[in-house]
Amino acid sequence: MSIKDFINSLVNNKAEGxxxxxxxxxxxxxxxxxxxxxxxxxxxxxxxxxxxGFYLFFAILSYAIILPSVRYIRAYKExxxxxxxxxxxxxxxxxxxxxxxxxxxxxxxxxxxxxGIAIGISFGMWNGKCCGIMGAMEGIMAGLMGGIMGAMxxxxxxxxxxxxxxIIIFIISGFVLAGLNYMVYKETRETERRHKDEExxxxxxxxxxxxxxxxxxxLGPRSILFG
Amino acid sequence: xxxxxxxxxxxxxxxxxxxxxxxxxxxxxxxxLGKNNDDPGIIIGEGGxxxxxxxxxxxxxxxxxxxIEVKANQPVRIYLDKSVSGCYRSFTIRELGIAKYLKTxxxxxxxxxxxxxxxxxxxxxxxxxxxxxxx
Lengths: 227, 135
Description:
The complex is a heterodimer of chains A (about 230) and B (about 140).
Chain A: H1 3-9, H2 19-40, H3 48-76, H4 81-107, H5 109-128, H6 133-156, H7 162-187, H8 199-219
Chain B: H1 2-33, E1 42-44, E2 52-59, E3 62-64, E4 67-70, E5 76-80, E6 90-93, E7 98-101, E8 108-111, E9 117-123, E10 129-134
Parallel strand pairs in B: 1-4, 2-5, 4-10
Antiparallel strand pairs in B: 2-3, 5-8, 6-7, 6-9, 9-10
């Protein structure tokens, strides 16, 4: 069960084999939603691309790396306490931090925190409950912390290489989620798959997340500094 | 044999998805990351013999203009207009030992730069930043 085995398993016909495909489905859905919104409404907004393009792009990439892990975890449904808590914490923290960071960059600390907390807690609790209340609690706490920290980091870096930091945080989060996927792989070698999400599940969640993020960033409330 | 064929087939499919992912990221990235609207702006201190007056506002989440040009050995007064809020009103030039909270747009920070050079200014937390050039 080495990393090499895990990489080889990315082409099998089990849950691991769906990871790359899920990234593609999420990205395709999100970019189609964004393209439709752009041609219908967003292109009439002054400075839309320079102001929001970078942050929307990375928010969409973030969802595309979080959703494969969510689908992978749901495939096995139940985990023991320690891996379950790790799942809740990682998903809650990464989802909260990334969404809080990118929304905080355009809307300020309050809205960024609220959005990050909402996304972080939802994902953290949803995935952490795979081991019961301990994982769910861990997910809630990590989502709360990640959401606030993401927005706070963004606002404090507004004039200090914010965009480079956005890229660094995204890359590190990608490695963290790859590590989580490897952990799930190791923990489930003796377990049968218990659930299969259809592609429509990923399409639906990507649609909701991208629409919501775009709406909040462009039309949502913002702090005085971002007025 | 069958398993080998299946493996290659599945690998080709995933490789295909991977290529599509990369193309999507490159395509959308080109569209969404291509433009930048940063405009730092420069202001030159103005005023009579008594002092050089500089008024700063906020644009793109930073002091605007964020480059100030002033003359050496002549007092400088820096005002922050009403668009400046929060910690940005706590104006600091660390190298000159200046730190003052300018509560209203009428308040100002006054100093006389004596040594020509480039000095950084910021808010107390370092979130808003700019440069003062003393000539």
